[in-house]
Amino acid sequence: MSTEIPLSERIEAILLIVDEPLGLVALAAAVGSPVPAVRQTLETLVDDYDGNGTGPRRGFELREVGGGWRLYVREELDPLVAAFVGGQAPARLSQAALETLAVIAYKQPVTRSQVASIRAVNVDSVVRTLLARGLITELFADSETGAINYGTTDALLQHLGINSLDELPPISPLLDDGADGFDEGTIR
């Protein structure tokens, strides 16, 4: 970490990318500076963003919430941001991604090769897309083969508007039970 870059810029860079509030000690470790210096810089940034310094008040603020620090949109700008986000076209998943996601949701934990076998196509790029969108996650690596097992995330549940995978519709009524074509163990 280059200490030639001002501490305030290093702190801002980290705070721009965090999804959850970051504690003071973790933030100090991330920027490679002592906790007292980071605390002082945070106070200066709060004043600066609030317009108490030489610059204007910003449309965002720096708040300490839940034992950590994070940048937030100012409350009075929430309606503007909500309208903007709501007006954006939702990113759609391809048919291949939806099929792969369904296999993972119903069969998890499941490996990439198991999904590929079920779908009878290569699913590498689709799995990468689903991982990048946060809809699936790597659960664990198989101790014997080293294969990564995948499962769904809470983000998928939120997108589907359900609380758990138990609320997914049963899949068995949609599938052939395989009984047709068999007569007393003989294939017709």
TrEMBL record:
Give the superkingdom in one word.
Bacteria
Keyword DNA repair among UniProt keywords: no
The record's keywords, sorted A to Z, are: Cell cycle, Cell division, Chromosome partition, Cytoplasm
The reply to whether Ribonucleoprotein figures as a keyword in the UniProt entry is no
UniProt cross-references to InterPro entries, sorted A to Z: ScpB_csome_segregation (IPR005234), WH-like_DNA-bd_sf (IPR036388), WH_DNA-bd_sf (IPR036390)
Its recorded name reads SMC-Scp complex subunit ScpB
User: Which organism does this sequence originate in?
Assistant: Microbacterium aurugineum
What would be the name of the gene that encodes this protein?
scpB
